Amino acid sequence: MRRRESIQEALDRSLVERRDFLRFCGGLMVAAPFGLPLTSGKSVEAIAAAIGAAKRPSVIWLHFQDCTGCSETLLRTSQPDLEKLLFDVISLDYHETLMAASGHQAEQALRDAMQHNRGEYVCVVEGSIPTKDRGQYMKLAGRPAMEVLADVAENAAAVIAIGSCASWGGVPSSGPNPTGAVGADALLSNKPIINIPGCPPNPYTFLAVVLQYATAGTLPALDALKRPLFAFDRLIHDHCPRRAHFDAGRFARQFGDDGHRKGWCL
Ligand code: SF4
């Protein structure tokens, strides 16, 4: 097994500014699993110290029946620093659409990533998995997607199903579901699995889960649908910055009207 560098070592190597990293650590979702109030600089420093000392978690990212929108959401966040920081914080050892390798080189990259981080890597699943007719509707290197998933998940520390497709089938499973598409959870047993649904999902929730695993070796508490409680314990409606207008009965009736310009409930 290769020595894995710490997150701080990776940040230093990439010349990441300290203040950018602190801003990243002070993000609500990143900080959520640490349970520290973000009212003081000290808490953010404590979170930064814990994240910096952790080994970069190895991530093997599998693509199945997807539109790659879940990957896109990580790469096009509203905070421009996040996409840069992401690749210093996690070790993305296999990702078919981002890696330069293809063909036999890509297959070897997957085998290497699994072997070097056996039992420790996080397997991320994007997209649903076709099961009908022995899974023949999607093959990778000649193997059905079902088989690849079972193989990679077997030696993973945990599986994260990112997006609605990977969580419970999503768009590819809509009627009449010609490929028998299902989410990862329907195929994997005896393996911790975290669902982060959404189309696309929230990238900060994903990062928070991976960082909790990297720093504490634990996974977040989950609800009945295996979603992280810290992110799914309330409705989007409860977080909405326009919520006060909803409560007061102030609604935009059409685009460009007075209510819309004033930021009322949509
Ligand atoms: Fe695309 Fe949405 Fe499926 Fe993600 S969940 S792969 S964004 S369709």
What does the model show?
The chain has 266 residues and is of the alpha/beta class. It folds into two domains: 56-233, Rossmann fold (3-Layer(aba) Sandwich), CATH 3.40.50.700; 236-266, no CATH class. 43% of the residues lie in helices and 12% in strands. The protein contains 15 helices and nine strands. The chain has helices spanning 7-13, 18-25, 28-31, 41-53, 69-75, 80-89, 103-116, 132-135, 145-154, 163-168, 203-216, 229-232, 236-239, 243-247, 258-261, and strands spanning 58-63, 91-95, 122-126, 129-130, 139-140, 143-144, 158-162, 181-182, 193-196. The strands form three sheets. A five-stranded parallel sheet has the order 2-1-3-7-9, sandwiched between helices. Strands 4-8 form a two-stranded antiparallel sheet. Strands 5-6 form a two-stranded antiparallel ribbon. A hairpin with a 2-residue loop joins strand 5 (139-140) and strand 6 (143-144). The mean pLDDT is 89. The structure holds iron/sulfur cluster.
Provide keyphrases for this structure.
266 residues, 5-stranded parallel beta sheet, 15 helices, 12% strand, globular
Please outline what is shown here.
The protein has 266 residues and is of the alpha/beta class. It contains 15 helices and nine strands. The model has no long low-confidence stretch (mean pLDDT 89).
Describe how the helices and strands are arranged.
Elements (H helix, E strand, L loop, with lengths): L6 H7 L4 H8 L2 H4 L9 H13 L4 E6 L5 H7 L4 H10 L1 E5 L7 H14 L5 E5 L2 E2 L1 H4 L3 E2 L2 E2 H10 L3 E5 H6 L12 E2 L10 E4 L6 H14 L12 H4 L3 H4 L3 H5 L10 H4 L5
Parallel strand pairs: 1-2, 1-3, 3-7, 7-9
Antiparallel strand pairs: 4-8, 5-6
Bound molecules: iron/sulfur cluster.
The site of iron/sulfur cluster (SF4) has 13 residues, from α5 and α10.
